[in-house]
Q: What sequence folds into this?
């Protein structure tokens, strides 16, 4: 009995060290990212007024881009989305919708809305995909092509789009996302102005819930009314403005949101296109592009720009949130495991030495560590491994530091883009930053833990997140 | 104090500091918000006072002297930066820019911008210099100055902007590059060319600063006669430099052609394009060891008048590298090259599908003899399996890789099939049933059947019996690519 007591005692003590290391590493890295992001976003906000649309729209500098929109059972949103995409402010734009074997009226609605006619195209399958069944065009929009294929998943649909793409760059865009008119101009600018070959570039994704939308455009920016959605707003601000901006400055971009990202077509095709063996094909592709660059001794850049904006709906219920976070966590674990040789590997530069270990320990294993913490730390109190007088200050520090980081992201937003103009919304965001760690974070950790378990059990099914509709409120 | 108590105290202290830092962040945000609100309110007031007068001046509804006097009075009461924002916020027509430029000069804004640009680049002595150098965001005023001078197309500021190309900050370099492109002072073109050369060479060694693409974009806005400054780059020993220079020339010609009222027949010759430059493309560059350079040469020569250019283009149609042939055949997509239609038609069975596609498009664009060659090839009597593609040394004699289907696709896209349907009787007399069956075999069965619905195309009814047996499935849609041939793709560099 005494032996067991000692074992439990030392085990809990060891776990305390794990918790502390997790706290120090996670918050330490995020603090560094915050510092870097603060400088960059603030400087960017000072130069942004000079980067007018006219300056960006120089036709000779604008590389032709194809926006590829994979669509599966999107009959409610696809027509408006495509109409809005066709009005994107970009000089040399092609739009390609890939209907991925929808069982609803997605294709029929597109055909009716745009008077699409079937055409015969020779399909050259540089990347292997499920069978492509038909192509549709309209003289009204000569830059629009709709391809219909057998259902194969998002990665498969994107690969079909890549096979058909004739422009040097393509942009992935979800069918239910809303792009700002000048978003593509701003995203491509970072590619045009870069002295190094940029093979992938991502923009910021913001929460559409609560915003006014008309004809596929955001007409009014507002916070959502539901608390669970508001917490996601602050979470996205922290992830994008703090996290991804900072990683980009370190040259260790590991994630670009597939909802809105531009890729160099030839490079992606050479690297094998999107892979369907993970549930987060965007994350997996970025990692593979990095690997491709090292193996082919190519000096390339993958960048994140916080300026161009894509609006997308977030889950509005705990159930849908769970589906989303399980998938993300599972995809992260799949990608990290698939590329585990990158861990602490100098060949992969900052990604191998910093980003990869961070994502493995803090983002992937972190769900397990935190979950165990919620269970074991009270036990440690009971067994007096940790005195209450020490536990409470640490808890307090944990809460305040998390609040500090999220507040930092909100202040970054305030100093730069200020998409939420009213003071009340600013105050609401600050309140959410403080309350996020009292329930919402624990819920997300639980879902992430489920994602880890699913990965360990070999799940591969994509849990579909159902959105309430095209954006938030219809501003008609 | 017990060790654990010390730890607790330290942790509590640290947590307190974190809370204090959080509060400071919030305070900074609130103060910024309040300041911002005041500034924008202030800007709105200024806009209400300035904009009507400015608008009247630009529309010539108010005399320049009266408008200037009124604005000078306002300028005395408002900060310069606010006035600058209001004056430069509208997009103006080119004739109005001259008025705005004069206004900015008379209000003293141009002098301020020039000083900001000059001062920023000056190395001040002593402690002042060090303080100035490390002042945060000082580059923003230089960026603004460089940009503003370009917005008003202030011609005499070009030497300053050329110096700004060497500014330590890339944002300033970018703004200066763009402004030089807006001003288009011929004397500054050589400086941009030198800059481009150094950017290209530094890219091959290690990338820094403003991108070559931005410089190239700016250079292409200059008049065509300025291209003479690229002569030395076209003779450079580094391939990348020659490529960039030839790309600049190509885009300049393309822009000139786009702006020309005689676009389809646009050519250069004599004084509007430097003859020494044309000579370089006709001789050395068309034999360049680098296929990318030869490809750009082909595009350039498409605009050069004269038999020598035509002879070089005809030669480049047989180049060993597919994308050189591609650019050469595209360059011939003008009606004046109809006499080369038969040469282009040979590329309808090129080993590379994009060359075949381009050949089809070129023949369609040529019209007349070009379309005739296309029809002759498409409706020819020989069976597909007898037709073999031109091959190169590595891939000799490939089967006709969907050449016929590709032609049909291009014909469909260009609307030629509709034209044929309308002139069916004429074709039927010449080609009989071959036309219908050929089109159907090439996967146009669905189109043909749909065409029967149109009463204008009644003659097609006669051929109905020939269409039905040919289902579109007979023409396979998907083509699995053969083993990839690793050749550089010029599209990679954009």
A:
């Amino acid at each position: 009995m005494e032996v067991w007591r000692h074992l439990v005692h030392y085990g809990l003590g060891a776990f305390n060290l794990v918790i502390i290391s997790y706290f120090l590493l996670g918050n330490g890295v995020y603090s560094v990212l915050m510092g870097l992001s603060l400088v960059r976003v603030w400087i960017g906000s000072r130069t942004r007024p000079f980067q007018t649309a006219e300056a960006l729209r120089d036709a000779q500098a604008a590389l032709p881009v194809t926006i590829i929109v994979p669509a599966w059972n999107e009959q409610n949103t696809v027509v408006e989305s495509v109409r809005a995409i066709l009005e994107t402010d970009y000089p040399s734009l092609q739009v390609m919708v890939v209907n991925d074997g929808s069982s609803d009226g997605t294709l029929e609605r597109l055909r009716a809305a745009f008077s699409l006619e079937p055409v015969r195209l020779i399909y050259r399958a540089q990347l292997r995909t499920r069978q492509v069944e038909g192509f549709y065009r309209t003289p009204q929009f000569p830059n629009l092509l709709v391809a219909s294929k057998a259902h194969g998943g998002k990665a498969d649909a994107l690969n079909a789009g890549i096979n058909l793409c004739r422009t040097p760059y393509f942009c992935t865009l979800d069918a239910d996302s809303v792009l700002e008119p000048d978003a593509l101009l701003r995203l491509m600018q970072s590619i045009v102005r870069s002295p190094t070959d940029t093979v992938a570039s991502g923009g910021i994704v913001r929460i559409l819930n609560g915003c006014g939308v008309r004809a596929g455009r955001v007409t009014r920016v507002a916070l959502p009314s539901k608390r669970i959605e508001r917490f996601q707003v602050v979470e996205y601000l922290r992830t994008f403005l703090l996290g991804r901006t900072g990683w980009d400055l370190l040259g260790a971009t590991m994630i670009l949101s597939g909802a809105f990202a531009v890729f160099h077509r030839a490079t992606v095709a050479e690297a094998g296109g999107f892979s369907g063996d993970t549930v987060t094909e965007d994350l997996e592709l970025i990692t593979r592009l990095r690997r491709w660059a090292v193996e082919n001794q190519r000096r390339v850049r993958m960048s994140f720009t916080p300026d161009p904006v894509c609006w997308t709906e977030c889950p509005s219920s705990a159930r849908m949130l769970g589906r989303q976070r399980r998938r993300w966590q599972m995809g992260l674990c799949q990608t990290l495991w698939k590329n585990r040789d990158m861990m602490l590997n100098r060949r992969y530069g900052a990604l191998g030495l910093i980003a990869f270990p961070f994502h493995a320990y803090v983002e992937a294993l972190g769900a397990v560590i935190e979950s165990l913490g919620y269970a074991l730390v009270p036990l440690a109190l009971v067994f007096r491994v940790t005195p209450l007088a020490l536990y409470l200050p640490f808890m307090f520090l944990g809460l305040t530091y998390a609040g500090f980081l999220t507040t930092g992201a909100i202040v970054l937003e305030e100093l730069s883009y200020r998409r939420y103009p009213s003071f009340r919304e600013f105050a609401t965001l600050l309140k959410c930053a403080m309350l996020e760690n009292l329930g919402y974070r624990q819920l997300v950790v639980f879902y992430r833990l489920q994602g880890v378990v699913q990965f360990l059990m070999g799940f591969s099914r994509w849990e579909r997140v159902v959105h309430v509709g095209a954006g938030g409120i219809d501003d008609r | 104090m017990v060790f654990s108590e010390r730890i607790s105290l330290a942790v509590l202290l640290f947590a307190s500091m974190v809370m204090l830092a959080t509060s400071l962040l919030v305070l900074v945000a609130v103060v910024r918000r309040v300041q911002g609100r005041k500034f924008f309110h202030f800007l709105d007031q200024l806009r209400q006072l300035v904009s009507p007068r400015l608008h009247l001046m630009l529309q010539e509804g108010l005399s320049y002297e009266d408008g200037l006097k009124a604005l000078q009075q306002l300028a005395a009461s408002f900060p310069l930066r606010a006035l600058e924002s209001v004056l430069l916020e509208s997009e103006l027509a080119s004739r109005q820019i001259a008025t705005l430029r004069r206004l900015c000069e008379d209000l003293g804004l141009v002098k301020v911008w020039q000083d900001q640009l000059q001062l920023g680049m000056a190395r001040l002595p002593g402690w002042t210099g060090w303080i100035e150098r490390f002042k945060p965001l000082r580059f923003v005023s230089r960026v603004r100055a460089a940009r503003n001078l370009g917005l008003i197309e202030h011609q005499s500021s070009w030497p300053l902007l050329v110096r700004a190309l060497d500014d330590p900050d890339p944002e300033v370099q970018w703004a200066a590059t763009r402004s030089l492109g807006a001003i288009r002072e011929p004397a500054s073109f050589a400086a941009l060319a030198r800059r481009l050369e150094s950017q290209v060479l530094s890219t091959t060694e290690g990338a820094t600063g403003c991108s070559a693409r931005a410089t190239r974009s700016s250079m292409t806005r200059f008049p065509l006669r300025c291209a003479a400054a690229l002569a030395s780059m076209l003779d450079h020993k580094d391939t990348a430099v020659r490529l960039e220079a030839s790309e600049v020339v190509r885009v300049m010609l393309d822009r000139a052609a786009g702006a020309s009222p005689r676009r389809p027949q646009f050519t250069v010759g004599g004084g509007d394009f430097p003859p020494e430059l044309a000579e370089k493309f006709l001789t050395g560059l068309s034999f360049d060891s680098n296929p990318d350079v030869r490809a750009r040469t082909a595009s350039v020569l498409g605009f050069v008048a004269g038999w020598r250019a035509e002879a070089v283009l005809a030669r480049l149609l047989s180049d060993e590298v597919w994308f050189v042939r591609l650019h050469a055949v595209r360059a011939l997509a003008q009606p004046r090259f109809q006499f080369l239609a038969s040469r282009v038609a040979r590329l309808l069975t090129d080993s590379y599908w994009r060359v075949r596609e381009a050949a089809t498009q070129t023949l369609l664009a040529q019209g007349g003899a070009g379309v005739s060659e296309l029809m002759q090839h498409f409706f020819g009597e020989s069976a597909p399996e007898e037709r073999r593609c031109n091959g190169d040394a590595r891939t000799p004699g490939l089967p006709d890789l969907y050449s016929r289907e590709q032609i049909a696709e291009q014909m469909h896209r260009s609307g030629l099939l509709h034209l044929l349907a309308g002139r069916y009787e004429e074709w039927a007399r010449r080609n009989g049933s071959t036309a219908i069956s050929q089109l159907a075999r090439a996967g146009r069965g669905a189109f043909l059947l749909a065409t029967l619905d149109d009463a204008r195309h009644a003659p097609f009814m006669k051929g109905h019996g020939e269409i039905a047996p040919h289902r579109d499935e007979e023409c396979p849609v998907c083509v699995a690519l053969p083993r990839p041939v690793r050749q550089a793709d010029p599209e990679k560099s954009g």
In short: DSSP finds 25 helices and one strand in chain B. The longest strand of chain B covers residues 478-479.
